[in-house]
């Protein structure tokens, strides 16, 4: 009887075990910590199953595990029985499943999630979101590049989920989005308290080539380099340093973009208010060259007041050189105020006006007719340029090179570097021209030779050469030529061969050309003039005398 009862109890227990539902593998179950040994927690998950979990799975990144015997925990059931006959369980996977459910809900609602940065990976960081690991790109850590992320490691803070894919196990989060949202709220609050024209304190946060960013207590404003001082500032670092506290004026606020423009010079007295009074036209002042361009040089008269010396006002003599060849940066120079435009904040200055006009000086020291000596600087098709004192030039025109030669021929006698003497013909200060003459220092043999000779005069010349086209003659050393057609009134006598070298011949002067230095002579013109004179003296048109009679009488009269 007893054996039968024992058998029935065993069958009942076996049936009971079959009726108990075994949990599904791959699900999260609850368990109880029944022991902790060898760095592991032994957990009873019910169903007469136990499993082991490493203690590190109960710890948050960078923290010690918080687990004790008797604690109830949720674990992930991988397999009901492993090789050791125990359940294969994982606390980490349970937390991950729980976290994914929670994170998906937050992602759908665009809510923030809490996490902690615990590691570095290529391109960013890893973040623990309470069981699920997310990727934080380096560009999403802060609103500005972060050089040292050490202080952020292990610190619980909010993140925004940008993207997640449960199937692939990918989550991308952003810390920057949280900061920007918070910053925007703070910015709006600070901007709401600011107004244009207000003077506030700020701290220099960053310096660039074009200006500095100033923290106004949660919102940054741009202090442009042109608004730092009335004077020229080449780089903001000349007058500002990072961390410096300064007073600035709010110049402009863009309500839409929340951009704030700041100014420092607006808190100082504008030097341009007194420019016209301090720098009257024509006055000379000392200044410092601050910048050199292709078209001139900027000279600082005082802090905040600069003027331009245009390249045309830099030198009396150096016309086509770069301003950098005349002045250098930081050089102190004397300048004259030529023009002031207060509306455009411009001052036109002159450098050459502080020195005497070299053409005026030359005119005073070298009156017309005086002799100069200089080096031939250049030779052109129309004359020579001769170097004079004070780096100026004078020109000798072709027509002023020689009395005896054509200018085109005479210029062939000169070379660059030759030292020549010349007479001053004219000094035009306004046009900056000096006319010189080399031939004026020599004798004008032509003028001397024809002294007293004028058109219509009859002169005696010596025949020096017989040519087919006429005869060459000489008068007081000056050569001339009588053409065949001018050799006689009588066509039959217009023969050059009837003359011989050495003959003396009377000819009438038909032209005196001082420019070409030529005398125009004609025997024919002399004969016609003599005939006309004889007719007037010895006969008349109605006397009935023949031309031969008149001439015969005229000749007799000459003999008597």
Supply the key terms.
560 residues, alpha+beta, five-stranded antiparallel beta sheet, 30 strands
Overview in brief:
InterPro entries: NA-bd_OB-fold (IPR012340), Ribos_protein_bS1-like (IPR050437), Ribosomal_bS1 (IPR000110), Ribosomal_protein_S1-like (IPR035104), S1_domain (IPR003029). With 560 residues, the chain is of the alpha+beta class. It has helices at residues 2-19, 91-109, 176-193, 275-278, 358-365, 407-410, 445-449, 523-538, 547-559; strands spanning 27-37, 40-46, 49-54, 72-79, 88-90, 112-121, 124-128, 133-137, 156-165, 170-174, 199-207, 211-215, 220-224, 245-254, 259-263, 284-293, 296-302, 305-310, 332-341, 346-350, 371-380, 383-387, 393-397, 419-428, 433-437, 458-467, 470-475, 478-483, 504-513, 518-522.
Structure description:
By secondary structure, this protein is α+β, with helices and mostly antiparallel strands. 19% of the residues lie in helices and 38% in strands. The strands form six sheets. Strands 3-2-1-4-5 form a five-stranded antiparallel beta sheet. A five-stranded antiparallel beta sheet has the order 8-7-6-9-10. It has a five-stranded mixed beta barrel with strand order 11-12-13-15-14. α8 packs across α9.
Largest sheet: 5 strands, antiparallel
Name the average pLDDT: 81
What share of residues are in beta strands?
35-45%
What's the tally of helices? 9
Classify the secondary structure makeup into a structural class: alpha+beta
Spatial order of strands in the largest sheet? 3-2-1-4-5
> How would you sum up the global shape?
rod-shaped
The number of E-state strands comes to: 30
Could you estimate the helical fraction of the residues in percent? 10-25%
